[in-house]
Write a structure and sequence with these properties.
The complex is a heterotrimer of chains A (305), B (668) and C (217). Chain A has 305 residues and is of the alpha+beta class. Chain A has 2 domains: 31-78 and 88-118, Helix Hairpins; 131-284, Cupredoxins -  blue copper proteins (Immunoglobulin-like), CATH 2.60.40. Helix content of chain A is 37%, strand content 21%. In chain A, strands 8-5-1-2-3-12-11 form a 7-stranded mixed sheet. In chain A, strands 4-10-9-6-7 form a 5-stranded mixed sheet. In chain A, strand 6 and strand 7 form a beta hairpin. In chain A, helix 1 (2-21) packs across helix 3 (39-72) and helix 3 packs antiparallel against helix 4. With 668 residues, chain B is an all-alpha fold. A two-stranded antiparallel ribbon of chain B has the order 1-2. In chain B, helix 3 (54-85) runs antiparallel to helix 15, helix 8 packs parallel to helix 10 and helix 8 packs across helix 13. The longest helix of chain B is centred in the N-terminal third of the chain and has 36 residues, at 95-130. Chain C is mainly α and 217 residues long. Chain C has 2 domains: 1-30, no CATH class; 31-216, Up-down Bundle (Four Helix Bundle (Hemerythrin (Met), subunit A)). The longest helix of chain C has 34 residues, at 146-179. The chains are: A alpha+beta (305), B mainly alpha (668), C mainly alpha (217). At the A-B interface, helix 3, helix 4 and strand 9 of A face helix 4, helix 9, helix 10, helix 11 and helix 12 of B.
């Protein structure tokens, strides 16, 4: 507890410095990880800035001293002392080891507390029940299943603003990473495994999201927009999804799982129960890879996939 | 008959690789034709290709590294220009090509650029600094080099015949499994890296043995130069880490060739195991590269400050500390995998602990400069550029070691900027410092200072102009490895990074011009004394370039900074040590084993990539036969007569005597 | 500059002057070639053991991943493995005899001991291949499950080492035959016997981890 308090207090001090220093950078950072719109992203940004501040306190004097020593002791400077044999000083050695050790001790506190506070598996503090969303990364699009609402969406994620969202994530084929920079917290998606992530959007808005782990030819197009909307707008989205489009059952899932590029957003009016569970436990087989022209170079936008 | 090989695998429809490879092929053919027609081949064969002299092998390693750095750099230019053109547009490289380019860039830069550069300098310098005549296993050393060259050749063949991997420089399954990468690209990667990896492992074994078992009389561990210490640490890391790479790639190979299930989605395979194993090698690999660079900086900063290295004991301790801790941090490469908070926190802390070791080193270099008489020659400029740049790279590295921050920055261009910051700012600046510092030792003339300084400033400015924008755009959420992108906020920064690349290109050109100009003006740049920088370690006791046997009589080392002690005594007594009694010297005979063995390895690797099984058998048989023939030879050594040794050493002594007479030294 | 006795220099404050008191003092200069060769080969063996540990680790991770296929307990025939083990351990003994014969420069004994070593090593390989063939015949080949992939790779990698050792053994016999007990040949033989004994050590670990623990699971 004491450690935590010390870290917090010093962190506040550090933040003031870091904020000033990074003000210029921040100005240009609209929409990035330094412009969060949710509690997770905000907390992660705070840790990021605190760590930068703590390290800058050491790094800047080091750089200045390095350049200063180099300049002062230049060969042509007649005023500089020459100590041709001076290569050891117990006191300096002590300082030289202590400075990095103390900084790292301090940072270790931040790392330990931060890792536990911001564990992606940990539910967020909130009055509201989290919205359940199941995420499947496919080649090359995102499938979002709303199990409670029994609808699904491709490449578009609509969530109510101000309510926590609990994501369960898996992959139909290769590894990907689910990442909405302004809400924070990246996590891998992997076939045969389920990862967990809790996020929340504080205000309404549209937030860019994408895969952050390279997954093949269609990787650049593996992006989506997260719409944080009012509660009634969310209900409207669910109702409109329910009233149109296909049903997502095994057959249509197999169809969906085939490789395709730059898929426009769409919705499914219903989802077969346990589909996510079946994908995550390999109850349905992994998605096929490139089909055309084996064993030649596979799908590419050039050939239209 | 020819496995998967057919005319279809040559990308006639893609002008870019065809033109590039045609130019390269023409250049190679031109050089070969010139070598043969001008009658240089016997000389090359006798003096270089079959040479087992550590200095010659070191030079060949460095040459290979410089060529591959150019190849990798041209990939980098393509990537930056593609992204500059690919804002809401397809650019000029289709994804299948772009993905090969970034995979080849990483693979070439790490395995065939940075590694041979560092190993080349180790080869050139370590035996000289230890005061001995060669490494422990000279012929094995030649085998190591040629196997590395084989790997480089295979990667470059993939440009024309077939394709290279499209999976990134570490082929994460299941993307790299046959199901998702059915082409030969990943196979090229696997065999090229596997064959070169064997070469590297043999180098590691060779240098551990050399440094621990072959030092000049009287040289204790604690009177070894810092570069020998860091080379020892790097070699130990090679011995401990490269077998893991071999095993991991073997498992992926079995998956791809025989349908095993180590890392597949099906039948219980576990992709996480690949990620863990590859980084259990991959993280130590970072230190295999950077530790020798740290050693180079220690030598350079001490020499050009005209002072002993400050805190030698701390430096040794910090080196070994990094060496050990580097094996305990691999998980920080995948904090976002969803391991629990305890695991992430533990590895995050372990990672930042490494910064203690590097921090100590930075301060010790700083205090080495304190009280010095600093000469700003090119190697010293690279070192200063390193100290500033590496501190920043280290800071962003520790930032990425904080798991909650990593959740925001992982796999972004911030990460890309970070590791380029430490690898360019650390390894490459170190290699260039070593290259300019030891060039006169290898060739007998210095590199042109003016062009060298220009190259340094252009490279330094170009580096910041390229990677500061990438740090920024990473903070804006831009992911790495994107063939095109749609987010307007990223576009200006990508353009700036592209412009930075132009400056870096000017730096590369300056570096090439420096070499050409230096060769043309070699008479003026001649190093007659063998000690052009007023050095402190034993390599400067030999003439430049050193004779094949390095030392006429092995020096007797009495304490630290062996050559400085010898020199100081000579200066005080105003005379050299007494002439030793010259004796005939036995040296290992040259052997084509390495070259022939690598030829068969190339044949075998190529055949394995294309599933030409009879050719695989032929290659394996050939390689085995080469070793048997080598084992059968009766006279492994030849003798240099005492008179010849005396002639060479007396020339060196008279040069030293003249230098001693005119020595003024640093102003007190 | 003040005159200093350079032999008294101790700029790093290592607490010793000159040679003789520091760790790893290289008093005599480079070690004799026999030491260097042996040392280098030990380092190689260590690297080989590191490679095996990667395969062991993979096996430990995948040992339970039978994917509905047969497990170790159903597949392993401990009697066969016991014979294999006996053959390999005995071959180490005969290899030791060959070393003694080399020390005593008794070429006939050397050939007999080496031939015995070869026969024992070859029977080990044959038994192993027979085991593999049986398993593949009952649809328990390496492509059946991740567990079997790891099993075949780990055991097969050791088998490949033994096969390479047999090839080396024959080359060694031919070398002694052609060149006699020459210094360089003796050094090579020393490396060979180190290699052969190291394979035993790995087999003991393999036998325990794979077969004994696997059969009891």
């Amino acid at each position: 507890m004491l450690l935590r308090a010390i870290v917090r207090n010093c962190a506040v001090l550090g933040r003031v410095g870091a904020t000033t220093l990074l003000a210029g950078l921040l100005a240009g950072c609209q929409g990035g990880v330094l412009d969060p719109h949710g509690p997770v992203g905000a907390a992660q940004r705070t840790i990021l800035l605190n760590s930068v501040a703590i390290m800058l306190a050491i790094v800047i004097p080091t750089i200045v001293a390095t350049l200063g020593f180099a300049w002062w002791f230049r060969e042509t400077n007649t005023r500089a002392r020459y100590l041709p044999e001076w290569a050891y000083s117990g006191r300096i050695e002590l300082v030289v080891w202590s400075i990095p050790i103390l900084v790292i001790l301090f940072l270790s506190g931040i790392i330990w507390i931060g890792s536990h506070d911001l564990d992606p598996m940990k539910p967020l503090d909130s009055q509201q029940q989290p919205l359940e969303v199941q995420v499947v990364s496919l080649d090359w699009k995102w499938l979002f299943i709303y199990p409670e609402q029994n609808v699904a969406s491709i490449n578009r994620l609509v969530v109510p603003a101000g309510r926590p969202v609990h994501f369960s994530l898996t992959s139909a084929s290769v590894m990907n990473a689910f990442f909405v920079p302004q809400l924070g917290g990246m996590i891998y998606t992997m076939n045969g495994m389920t990862t967990q992530l809790h996020l929340q959007a504080d205000q309404q808005g549209e937030f860019y999201g994408r895969s952050a782990h390279f997954s093949g030819d269609g990787f650049p197009g593996m992006q989506f927009v997260l719409h944080a909307v009012a509660v009634d707008a969310f209900d409207a989205f669910v109702n409109s999804a329910r009233s149109q489009g296909q049903a997502l059952d095994r057959a249509s899932y197999q169809e969906l799982a085939r490789q395709s590029l730059d898929v426009p957003p769409s919705t499914y009016r219903s989802v077969e129960p346990d589909l996510f569970h079946e994908i995550a436990t390999q109850g349905v087989p992994p998605a096929p890879g490139p089909q055309a022209g084996r064993p030649e170079p596979s799908v590419s936008p050039k050939t239209g996939g | 008959m020819l496995g998967k090989l057919s005319w279809d695998v040559i990308p006639f429809d893609q002008p870019l690789p065809m033109i590039a490879s045609a130019v390269v092929a023409l250049a190679i053919l031109g050089v070969l034709a010139w070598v043969f027609l001008a009658g240089h081949f016997p000389y090359l064969w006798r003096e270089w290709i079959t040479s087992v002299d550590h200095k010659r092998i070191g030079v060949m390693y460095t040459l290979l590294a410089l060529l591959m750095l150019l190849r990798g750099f041209s990939d980098a230019v393509m990537m930056r220009s593609q992204q500059a053109l690919a804002f809401q547009a397809p650019g000029y490289l289709p994804p299948d090509h772009f993905n090969q380019v970034f995979s080849a860039h990483g693979t070439i830069m790490i395995f065939f650029g940075a590694m041979p550069f560092v190993i080349g300098l180790m080869n050139l310098v370590v035996p000289l600094q230890l005061g001995v005549r060669d490494v422990a296993f000279p012929t094995l050393n030649s085998v190591s080099f040629w196997l590395t060259a084989t790997g480089a050749l295979l990667v470059n063949i993939s440009l024309v015949i077939g394709e290279f991997a499209r999976t990134g420089w570490l082929p994460y399954p299941p993307l790299s499994e046959t199901a998702y990468s059915p082409g030969v690209g990943v196979d090229y990667y696997l065999w090229a890296v596997q064959i070169a990896g064997v070469g590297t492992l043999l180098t590691g074994i060779n240098f551990v043995t050399t440094i621990l078992k072959m030092r000049a009389p009287g040289m204790s561990y604690l009177s070894m130069s810092m570069f020998c210490w860091t080379s020892l640490a790097a070699s130990l890391l090679i011995v401990a880490a490269f077998p893991i790479l071999t095993a991991t790639l073997a498992m992926l190979t079995l998956d791809r060739y025989f349908g095993f299930h180590f890392f597949t989605n099906e039948a219980g395979g576990n992709m996480l195991m690949f990620v863990n194993l590859i980084w259990a090698w991959g993280h130590p690999e970072v230190y295999i590269l950077v530790l020798p660079a740290f050693g180079i900086f220690s030598e350079v900063i001490s020499t050009f400050s005209s002072k002993p290295l400050f805190g030698y004991r701390s430096m040794v301790a910090a080196t070994l500390f990094i060496c050990i801790v580097s094996f305990m941090v691999w998980l920080h490469h995948f904090f976002t995998m969803g391991a629990g908070a305890d695991v992430n926190a533990a590895f995050g802390i372990a990672t930042s602990i490494i910064a203690v070791g590097t921090g100590v080193k930075i301060y010790n270099w700083m205090f080495t400069m304190y009280g010095g008489r600093i000469r700003f020659a090119t190697p010293m400029l690279w070192s200063l550029g390193f100290m500033v740049t590496f501190v920043i790279g280290g800071m962003t590295g520790v930032l990425l070691a904080v798991p909650p921050a990593d959740f925001l920055l992982h796999n972004s261009l911030f990460l890309v900027a970070h590791f380029h910051n430490v690898i360019i700012g650390g390894v490459l600046f170190g290699a260039f410092a070593g290259y300019t510092y030891w060039f006169p030792k290898a060739f007998g003339f210095r590199l042109h200072e003016g062009w060298g300084k220009l190259a340094f400033w252009l490279t330094l400015i170009g580096f910041y102009a390229t990677f500061v924008p990438l740090y920024t755009v990473g903070l804006l959420g831009m992911t790495r490895r994107m063939q095109h992108f749609d987010v307007p906020a990223w576009y200006p920064w990508v353009l700036v990074a592209g412009a930075g690349m132009l400056i870096t290109t000017a730096g590369v050109v300056a570096q090439i011009i420096q070499l050409v100009v230096s060769i043309r003006q070699r008479a003026a740049l001649r190093d007659v004394t063998g000690d052009p920088w007023d050095g402190r370690s034993l390599e400067w006791a030999t003439p430049s370039p050193p004779p094949v046997f390095n030392f006429a009589a092995l020096p007797h080392v009495e304490g630290e900074e062996p050559y400085w002690s010898i020199k100081q005594r000579a200066r005080e007594q105003n005379r050299l040590r007494d002439e030793p009694e010259y004796e005939p010297i036995e040296m290992p005979r040259n052997s084509p084993t390495g070259f022939i063995c690598a030829f068969f390895a190339t044949v075998m690797g190529f055949a394995l990539i294309w599933h030409i099984w009879w050719m695989v058998a032929l290659g394996a048989l050939g390689a085995f036969a080469t070793f048997v023939v080598f084992a059968w030879r009766d006279i492994p050594e030849y003798v240099i007569p005492a008179a010849e040794v005396a002639r060479i050493d007396r020339a060196n002594r008279s040069a030293r005597r003249e230098a001693l007479a005119t020595y003024t030294g640093p102003r007190p | 500059m003040t005159a200093i006795d350079v032999r008294e220099r101790d700029p790093y404050h290592l607490g010793h002057r000159g040679h003789g008191h520091a760790p790893g003092h290289g008093d005599g200069g480079p070690a004799p070639i026999r030491i260097v060769v042996g040392y280098g080969f030990w380092i190689f063996l260590l690297s080989d053991i590191v490679m095996f540990s990667a395969f062991f680790a993979a096996y430990a991770v995948l040992a339970g991943k039978t994917a509905g296929g047969p497990s170790g307990a159903e597949l392993f025939d401990l009697r066969n493995v016991a014979i294999e083990t006996a053959a390999l351990l005995l071959s180490s003994f005969t290899c030791g005899l060959a070393s003694l014969a080399v020390t005593a420069r008794r070429s006939s004994w050397f050939y007999v001991a080496m031939a015995l070593t070869f026969v024992l090593g070859a029977s080990f390989i044959l038994l192993e291949l027979r085991e593999f063939a049986h398993m593949i015949a009952r649809d328990a080949g390496p492509t059946r499950s991740a567990f079997l992939s790891a099993f075949f790779t780990l055991v097969g990698c050791h088998g490949l080492h033994v096969t390479a050792g047999l090839l080396w053994l024959l080359t060694m016999m031919a070398q002694i035959f052609a060149k006699g007990f020459r210094d360089d040949i003796l050094r090579r033989f020393m490396c060979f016997s180190l290699f052969w004994h190291a394979l035993d050590i790995i087999w003991v670990a393999l036998f325990t981890v794979v077969y004994l623990l696997g059969a009891s699971r």
